[in-house]
Every structure is written in structure tokens, then in C-alpha cells.
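Homework help board

Subject: predicted structure for assignment chain

Our instructor gave us this sequence and asked us to write out the predicted structure in C-alpha cell form, then describe one feature. I got the C-alpha cells but I'm not sure how to describe them. Can anyone check?
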Amino acid sequence: MKNLTKSAIGVSTILTLGTAATAEITGAYTYNYTVTAADFDGSDVTVNVQDLYLRSSDAADTALNVYNVNLVEAAQVPYFQSFTGTGWQPTNLGGPFDTPALRMADSFVTVGGFAQDTIAPEQAPGAGSGTGLDPNFGGNGATYPGENAGWYNGSPPSLNGAVGSVPETSGDLIGLGVLIGRFASVGFSDLSFSTLEVTWNQGLGTPGQQGSFVVNVPGPGAIALLGVAGFVGRGRRRSA
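My C-alpha cell output:
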């Protein structure tokens, strides 16, 4: 396998809509970078990655689901799926199917369940297991999440959505939050101003809270690089 390379290109900031004064999950943001990685056939793919996070101010928070997701037009594009990927639900079968492209360049949605304390978490075997898609998503093989899409932790006792250390919007600093998706595109894509709603609690038996969030404009470096067309690589989507 060839070596994987990646470089950070920018991050987004956050706007919050309609959250209660007691809310601890405070926003949604992306951490953006490029990745070049080898796929199953040995060829390299280069993609723009937007890792989508929830931000939290309380270490006890646990995300349960993401719903009413509506992508802006600039984000309604075909997203890259590695050759051994199986759609938007994260699935790494391990063995010969475990490739750098699957780990770092494949698109998926999740409610946590990934290693934290890292800038670009890998889709290792078992990461994000139990993620379910609601009917509005459009199926596991959708080109991109449909109108009012949603996904959820299908096994709440696992506490997959518990917050932890994640990349902060100011750069490589570590903040508190949880990964909810990776959107990797060969060409231009921008999640800015996309909207979503979230349900979370503070562990089993605690009451749920809800909030609505909008992803704001990325920093200048991210905008400049995401606007460059013609990245080398290939995308592959499967029918639902």
C-alpha cells in the first residue's frame, strides 16, 4: 500500500439557531483538509474532505441523532466512496478490504463511534458501527443526503455519540465535540449554510435536548482550495 498524505486547508465557524439557554451542544462545524490515499486497486485518489462535527461545552453530552439535514446547493454533489466502501453507513470489513482510501477518503455519516483526540479520525474496522439512516436520507447508496435527511445511533446503550477531544475551528487545537460525518469530494463541495437539528442527552436515563444549527462560511484558505476543480481520483457510488 502506498503512503497516505493529508494537509489541513481550513475550518469553518459556527452559527446556532434556536437552541435553549441550557443547551450544551452549541453548534455544528467542519474541519477541512485534503487527502491523497491508495484505493483497493492501488491507484491514488485525492479528495477534499469536510469532517462535520458537533461542538459541545459539557463533557457529559452524548449525541443521539441528527435530523432535518438540508444541504445547500454547493453541497449537493456526488461524494467519493472508496472501492471497498459500502455506502453512507460506515463499514470497514478489515483484511484486504481495509485500504487507506477507505480509512481516510471515504464518505460516511455517523453519530460518534470514532477515535477522538486526533485531527483526522480513521474509519478503522468497527468505527461508527450501528449507524442507522432514516427514510429521508435516500438510502445507503444515495449520491448525497436527501431533503430533511437524518441518521442516528442505532444502539444507544453503546454511547457512541459521547463527546470528546476533537479538532477546534481555530486550527489544530483540541476542543470538545463529536464527529457526525465525513463528506469527501473529488471536485468542489461546500457545506457552508447547510442546516441540521440534533438530539442529545447526558447518558442513559437522562432527558433529551434538541437544537438547530447552521454551518457557516469556512476560512479563506478553505474557500480558495475548495474552489479548485479537477482533483485527481475517481468516485464510485452504488445503488440503494
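Reply (TA_rk): Your C-alpha cells look well-formed. For the description, you could write something like this. DSSP finds two helices and eleven strands in the chain. That's the kind of observation they're looking for.
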